[in-house]
Amino acid sequence: MARLHVAISLIAFSLGISGFLMPDLESVHLYVSVSGSDQNSGRDVGHALKTIQAAISRLSHPDVTGKNVFIELMQGYHDLTSTVNIRHSDARKVTIRANGNSEVHVTGGKRLPTSLFKHVTDSGILRHLQNEARNKVVAARLSDAGLSHLWDLSDYGFYKDRTAPMEIFYNGAPLRMARWPNEGQGYINIASLVDGKTGSSFTFSGDRASHWSQESDLWAHGFWYWSWADRSIKVKSITASNNTITLAHPPPFGLRTGHFHYGQNYQYSYQDQGGYFRIINALSELDEPGEYYIDRTSGILYMWPPSQTEGLDQHDVIYASDLAHCFNLDHTSNVIFEGFTLEACRHYGISVRYGQNITVQRMEVRNTGSYGISCLNCLNVNITGCDVHHGDGGIKVSGGIRATLTPSRISVDNNIIHSFSRETAVGSNAISADGVGIYMAHNELHTGQYTAIRWSGNDHVMEYNHVHHLCQNATDCGALHTGRDWTGRGCVVRYNHVHHVLRLHPGADVRGVMLDDQYSSVNIYSNVFYNNDVHVNIGGGRDNIIQNNVFYEAAKSSMQVDSRGVPHSSNEQPLQKKLHAVPYTSALWAKRYPKLAVIDSNAPDEPRGNEISRNIFYNSAAPDFVGSYTNTHWFNITMNHQAAGPTDFFDPAQADFRPRCSLSKFAQSIHFPDPVPLHDVGPRGGIGPMYKGHVAGSRRDVITTKRDVPAPCTTHAPSALTPITSYLPDGSHANTVKNTPNQGCWFDVEICPNDHGFTSGLQRDVDGEKHLNTGINESACLDRVPYMVTHCGSQSKFSVIYGPTGAMTLGGFGCYFAQYGCPKHGSYHVGFIRDKWAEQHQNAAHDENACLSRALAEWRYCGSDETFPYTSIYLPTGRRKTAAGGCWIYVTKCPADPTVNIPHDLFFDAWGATNVGSDRSSTACFQRADDFWFRCGRHTDAPVTAFYRPEANSRTVP
């Protein structure tokens, strides 16, 4: 029902944008043909105009004003000689489209006829080329194609919008500026720093410096210090004798030595990131098909064609980019782009500022220097059914008014955006979204060096997207990524498939969704994550909800959480600046985001209010659901369930993660919704211009061989092996220390100085059984220690035993161990010993936490041997903690499942140890508390506790 409501809302939303609720005006058609003339009227095919700009200028003609205008582009390549500027703000619609769905290309470049290219005969150039390239490279003088300005290289990378130099495209695909290492071979490590981290000189290993020292316009692109910050920088000089490079200026974050090793970078840590680069724009490195070099002094293009046959074919289409922007719309309304290919623009393909009622549909936008489509400070925009690829960024949108939370009504839906970070890695995203109320749905976003969706602002919805193969050339990255803002609230990530986001380079982990640097209040639910490094990250933020997701096969862990803001305790300045830039305490904001309104008085640096619940997960290599940090005060991690294996899902190879087998019962008990199927995500219907015959997106690296019948369930019978129980009886086995009847609550008194009437030996807790039910409640019985200490005095010594299970504890004064021995250090003493060291050095006789922490420390000191458990007992309260092997479950009662009625309330989780690794993972162990509580009927008066003894830790549900 919820999804139906969403679908109906989106239909209304889409109609509101694309229809514009415009008046029914008379229409005029203006025809533009590559063989036309701007002196023509353009009113019919026989009198077509030649340029789009001429058609735009006709909008003010008396017989066109007041009418909707269709600018009909006839078949062919329309090479723009200048940017098409549109400033149109009246009520009529202007549609620029391919006439009759014919094949139309609008380019910001010039075509280079194949007849211009000749084999290289210049001996000086031939000496500069590698041997294998000398009879492969062809050359053309660009001025012969009418190109007089060759557009120099400039810095790009790390959120710096790239205006590309002149680039070359061959049959619709970009060629690569000649470089080393070659495509797919990685980077060169910096070997040493000549003038320190903040300098600009470094050395490297290899034998190519002698070639590079002869280059006249050499550049380097690298991850100079961080693997999340790339930058291209001109090379000032090379000293071949000692392999030293000096850059024109230091990189923004400095330099460091590198540890890049192609194909095995997964093993390198955060500290080993950065410090690697590649050389670009080097004639001497024009050594493989698909590379080119432009000599900006002579004006000659050198190219090794990528075709499989020798030489060029007369039908090859070769373009050089020339214009920065192809279409520029400023304060413009009611414009539609439809059905053609736009390409070879050095900056943006379509650039809109302060636009309203803009539609871009069924377009192919490719081979741009920066974003294919940019619409900033816009309202009522729909970008749909487009194929955007091989740019430095896909689609950039912003709009809405944050102060009033007025939505932008921008929709980016049903698009394929891929190969979108062709040169720039960090900051050239598939979708960049900023403002209020941007809707991003049913897109396929894949194959990028860094992030697919980078968002900021409020109330955005990201749903039904197919997102995969991201973060391919950088680390500390998220496929969906945002950060450093407490105020960007109201955003939703739901019903997406996110997969194959893996760390391939040295550095920090990469994630499916990354909430970086204390970003807060995102609702992430009902997504399917699989085959990622980490599925979701909460980087110190607050009030995030992670619920009802499938997390399958994380290389590291399903989730990461941390408290990175707490050490600063200074309310980090960027966060405070953003907080006070919005009216977060106003009536409107306080009603919409009540937790934000009181953040100043609610320890803003602490990651409070995070809810991680009702997710299902399976990891064969990384058993933990959440990494090592699990502060329950800040992160409520509850009712998440680990599958026993791949067969607990219907068909993971088909991305069909419907629960089955042992997982299905848990899913039913919490009403886990069916995961969104793969065929429901990504584009619906055709994509790109009609002439290309495009259909919805790919399913690569997901679908293998479809199973006709699901694989058999493969849970195993529990192992009969049980770790040694504690010497101090805890109810898991018969009490061999103290003999008591099997009913009632008992005191075994050694010393009771304040009451000589308390004789030594066993005495029944008659008063407690009568008034506190200690005879039928183990916890109530053992909790009688403080009463006895008060009654008998601080120097008393006694035991309390619960008859039905034999569970017992000690009471009196001091901190004690119950031990089996310490084999690593040659001791095999069995029994109770006083922890004198802890009493002397940690005040453990008076500090319960200090005393109880000693069990784990001593067990590890003695070798962490499962056959030699250690229990610490704090005698003033009788509290105890055991460090040993295994996951142990304490069930007080189980009304809904009589099969759980075992001889003792505390038992080893043999099934969990065999099937989900509960004896090896605290996450798996603590999840079993949820399992048993659900299995036993979810009664609040029947809690279940899971004890993970290898960490001497526990969790109680509810």
From TrEMBL:
Chain ranges of the Right handed beta helix domain: 327-443
SMART domains noted in UniProt: PbH1
Signal peptide interval: 1-19
Lineage: superkingdom: Eukaryota
Keywords: Signal
Protein name, as recorded: Right handed beta helix domain-containing protein
Pfam families for the chain: Beta_helix
InterPro entries noted in UniProt: Beta_helix (IPR039448), PbH1 (IPR006626), Pectin_lyas_fold (IPR012334), Pectin_lyase_fold/virulence (IPR011050)
